[in-house]
Amino acid sequence: MGLGAATERTTIMGLMHLLLRRVVPGIVVATALAIGWICNHPVPLGRFFATLVPLMKGILPPQIVGHGKMKGTPPVPDDLLPQPRPENELFLELPGGDLFPQSGLGMCCRPTAYDDVLVYRTVLWYLLQGGRHIDGAHMYLNHGAIGKAIKEAVRRGVDRKEVFLTTKIAPSHFGYDLTVKTVESFLPELSVEYIDLVLMHAPSFPAIISTPCRRAGKDAAQCREETWRALSDLREKGVIRNAGVSNFAVKHLMELKALELAPIANNQIEFNPFVSESINETFDYCQKHNVAITAYFPLGGEIANKGKALKNEILGKLADKYGASVSQVMLRWAIQRGCAVIPGTGNPKHQKENLEVYKFALDEEDMKTINDLKHTVVEEGFMQGVDYSKAE
Predict the structure, then answer these.
(1) 139 neighbors 49 (Cβ within 8 angstroms)
(2) Exactly one of 114, 126, 140, 285 is catalytic; which is it?
(3) What would the pLDDT profile of 248-292 be if each residue is shown by its tens digit?
(4) Helix (H), strand (E) at residue 323
(5) How far is it, in rounded angstroms, from Cα 293 to Cα 357?
(6) What's the rounded Cα separation, in Å, for the pair 183 and 168?
């Protein structure tokens, strides 16, 4: 073996030694600490997403560096007072008689939704510009900022009775006693005396994720049943006004309906022209059984889909026809299909544009044209989201 080869081998062995003795253990320790930090939170999956979503955008998470350091939603002027609600505003009537505004604001799944300062500004801008439907969740970890914004909006003249506030309880907190305790804790977190709508966030978590209800020896269906009984009782007590679900397929809805407890007021699902057949089946079931639909991802789905939808030639031509944006056309389509929509944005200009979907209506032929976009899913390369019909 030559001197050069021996030197090369020595160098490689040295690097391997460094890797095995220093780098790998460091990675293992860092990973263990990260997992421990996440799991130590009362809502571990919430902390996971509150960390992951900003990192995916190259932004340091507020959960780590603190709130108020992220760029985004501008401050709300101190002298800004409530503007009129949108003309020709549309509502869905829930089983208990409450009116559910069809244009809402989603408080999830973007970096600014996890920064308390920007959440406060986002909700306050929205309420002062005439919006009244806010969609949150326990797992988004932003109840406090949402509640603070509602309180400030009320101080400036918004009627709390006009604000329709939705939140959700995660499967990690399913079970009768834990549901009651958790939902009652939402009231001080949100600084409200009642909550307009509480949803079960999903039918279940994957079996690999341990929950108190599962550890008690109950299966997913039993955990759902206990939670639905708890929500029904909370509705009777006036803690919540309506109970509903999110991401539930037909089989899960039938299961709750058979209990003959509180009516299922709402099912929040991904809904846009490009969703899968199983989601369309869920939509049809809800329409038939008087379950209001809230459409999340109404602009086409996750980031890749949204980009494709906004560049769709057919939607572009319709936008030109109505003097609207593609986003407004898609929101209006969902509203005319009978959904409430909750696009998420902290941009006051975009919030105002989203509230202007009541200014025009799509004719029957154009509604059919958009309905038929589902036949282009494969050729356009759209991803169709999670099939919750396969959830336990």
Answers:
(1) yes
(2) 140
(3) 999 999 999 999 999 999 999 999 998 989 999 999 999 999 999
(4) none
(5) 18
(6) 9
